[in-house]
Design brief:
Blueprint (H helix, E strand, L loop, with lengths): L20 H12 L11 H10 L5 E2 L7 E2 L2 H10 L28 H9 L61 H26 L9 H13 L9 H14 L13 H24 L11 E4 L2 E4 L8 H4 L3 E4 L6 E2 L2 H10 L8 E6 L2 E7 L4 H12 L14 E10 L2 E11 L6 E3 L1 E4 L8 H16 L4 E2 L5 H21 L7 H8 L3 H10 L3 E4 L2 E4 L3 H14 L20
Helix pairs in contact: 12-13, 13-15, 13-16
Protein name: Histone acetyltransferase
Family: Belongs to the MYST (SAS/MOZ) family.
GO molecular function: chromatin binding; histone H3K14 acetyltransferase activity; histone H4 acetyltransferase activity; transcription coregulator activity; zinc ion binding
């Protein structure tokens, strides 16, 4: 809330004098006691009279029929508040300000109050000024010196269409080959679609028993299929020349042209994801969690890979402000320069994670690392993981957790593939607290291996497990894919006539809630005659089996016989 500009009050600096020493003594005594005397109201006529007299006539007309003489300081104070005729504002000493520091120009309400003083219809000199708060400087000024780093951009507009200005490439319309008006139009369209989706979701909530797709959903699916038909048609010669010319003209300062590369539907999904990510970054910037151009690690050098980071991680400030971090891929120590990393690698004796190797098959190994015994390593692992996870909050309090680190071995050592952590004593039977696959190993089946290994540990413990919520976007996709594969494999091998969710849970160690949600998404759960029935959809099972056959035998599966592990006790 901005402070008001004007203030008239009585204090120890002598802002009100009387025409007799008795009144002055009485005023001083009342001020020393903390009792502020009631001020009289000034009329417009008295203010105009004082302004025309230019300091010769010091009398002010009071509405309460009391005439007093205002001190020289009060005269100049009120003269500064009143509109002046082409003359500079005066300081309380009666001199023109020698610098801007003597004038309060930081208040955002200054221009508003000046317009009130210049417009006779808006002046409020007839109002009682004694209740206005004391004028003070406003320190909540906005830094307009920040500029968007995109060449030729004036920092106006925002990719989300919800903000008037931007200061980062993530929110720059020009970088994304758009204008500010186009972003606003797209934002309006997205909001309209989101409202329609909410209405549709609300209507479907009351019809959960009907598992078959509605006519609206069927039409939408057909429209999407039709829009995606031409996404692999390729670019024409003219389009390729246009894209190359755009690339040569702007280089990395602009986003490549994306039109005609894929379908309009997929491009719109990508634009929507961009706007959502930009809105999240803008929210973090407003909250002060990140600042543009500082305290944000952009890339890390990890082994033979250079990885672009996705999210902010609370590394120490002297490291975070560098923008580029050098991390040892074995001990996970982070350094400031490549020279320091090279010297460290010459002396580092670690070639695999600390802890016990509990699984090995081929080149794949899993190490169990105790957060209490190897605290520094686990803290560094959490800081590294936060660069690629949005919802992770655990960084330093690692002692109550066990970390299961998956590696891939070659002649130089065991390279980090991914990991998951779990509580030593979970009251809700969570078998995963945090899970991550390193970006260079994504979309290769390692994430599903980590999930499968976590459920293998639950089977050995004879428990039913479930991941801790909330899941990240990629984590949710991986888990849904895994649950679907587990259920279809169980259905394929099931030879009985009646099936129960409890039996599936005991066989697979998957929580019944996760089983029900997966069955509903597969439309395999039916409510009929007061009972829930599980449908064995042969078309989905055949589709899964054909994919399994095409995939063939590979090493991206967990072999239970290769596990050498017993549940920890007393941890």
């Amino acid at each position: 809330m901005y402070p008001r500009l004007l203030h008239v009050g009585s204090g120890s600096d002598g802002t009100e004098d009387s025409d007799s020493s008795a009144e002055r003594e009485q005023t001083n005594s009342s001020e020393s006691d903390g009792n502020i005397p009631k001020r009289t109201r000034l009329t417009r006529a008295s203010l105009r009279l004082s302004q025309s007299s230019q300091g010769k006539a010091m009398g002010w007309i009071m509405t309460s029929q009391i005439t007093s003489i205002i001190s020289q300081w009060d005269f100049f104070f009120f003269s500064w508040l009143l509109p002046q005729d082409e003359s500079p504002p005066l300081t309380p000493t009666g001199n023109a300000p020698s610098s801007e520091s003597e004038l309060d120009i930081s208040s955002p309400n200054a221009s508003h109050d000046e317009s009130l003083a210049k417009d006779p219809a808006l002046r409020d000199s007839d109002k009682d000024l004694s209740h206005r708060p004391k004028r003070r400087r406003c320190h909540e000024t906005y830094n307009f010196n920040m500029k968007c780093p995109t060449p030729g951009c004036n920092s106006l507009g925002h990719l989300t269409g919800k903000h008037e200005r931007h200061f980062a490439v993530s929110g720059c319309p020009l970088y994304h080959n758009l204008s500010a008006d186009e972003c606003k139009v797209k934002a309006t369209t997205r909001e309209k679609h989101e409202e329609e989706a909410k209405v549709q979701e609300e209507s479907n909530r009351h019809a959960t028993r009907h598992q078959t797709p509605t006519s609206r959903q069927t039409r939408y699916k057909e429209q999407v299929t039709e829009m995606r038909k031409g996404r692999n048609s390729g670019l024409s010669k003219e389009q390729k020349e246009k894209y190359m010319e755009h690339r040569q003209s702007h280089g990395n300062t602009r986003e490549p042209l994306l039109e005609n590369i894929t379908s309009e539907y997929d491009l719109e999904l990508f634009r929507k994801a961009q706007a959502r990510a930009s809105e999240d970054l803008e929210r973090l910037r407003i909250q002060g969690q990140i600042t543009e151009g500082s305290n944000m690690i952009k890339t890390i050098l990890f082994g033979r890979y250079e990885l672009d980071t996705w999210y902010h991680s609370p590394y120490p400030e002297e490291y975070a402000r560098l923008g580029r971090l050098y991390v040892c891929e074995f001990c996970l120590k982070y350094m400031k320069s490549q020279t320091i990393l090279r010297r460290h690698m010459a002396k580092c004796v670690w070639k695999h994670p600390p802890g016990d190797e509990v699984y090995r098959k081929g080149a794949i190994s899993v190490f169990e690392v105790d957060g209490k015994k190897n605290k520094i390593y686990c803290q560094n692992l959490c800081l590294l993981a936060k660069l690629f996870l949005d919802h992770k909050t655990l960084y330093y309090d690692v002692e109550p957790f066990l970390f299961y680190v998956m590696t891939e071995a070659d002649n130089t050592g065991c390279h980090l593939v991914g990991y998951f952590s779990k509580e030593k004593n979970s009251f809700l039977n969570y078998n995963v607290s945090c899970i991550l696959t390193m970006p260079q190993y994504m979309r290769q089946g390692y994430g599903k291996m980590l999930i499968d290994f976590s459920y293998l540990l639950s089977k050995v413990e004879e428990k039913v497990g479930s991941p801790e919520r909330p899941l990240s976007d990629l984590g949710l996709i991986s888990y849904r894919s895994y649950w679907k594969e587990v259920l279809l494999r169980y259905m394929y091998n099931f030879q009985g006539k009646e099936i129960s969710i409890k039996e599936i849970s005991q066989e697979t160690a998957v929580n019944p809630v996760d089983i029900v949600s997966t069955l509903q998404s597969l439309q395999m759960l039916k409510y009929w005659k007061g009972k829930h029935l599980v449908l064995k959809r042969q078309d989905l099972i055949d589709e899964w089996k054909s994919k399994e056959t095409k995939r063939g035998s590979n090493n991206k599966t967990i072999d239970p016989s290769s596990l050498k592990w017993t549940p920890p006790k007393g941890t």
